[in-house]
Amino acid sequence: MFIQIIQGKCRDADEMRRLSDEWRDQMGATAQGWLGGTYGITDDDEFMGVVRFESREAAARNSAKPEQGEWWSRMEQCFDGPATFHDCDDAMMFLDGGSDDAGFVQVIQGRVADPERFRSLMSGPMDVMHEQRPEIIGGTIAMEPDGWFTETVSFRSEAEAREGERRDMPSEDRDRWMREMEQMQDVHYYDLHRPWFASAPMRSSGMSMDTGMPMDSDMPIDSGRS
Question: Which of these CATH numbers, 3.40.50.300, 3.30.70.100, 3.40.50.10490, 3.20.20.70, describes 2-192?
Answer without folding.
Answer: 3.30.70.100
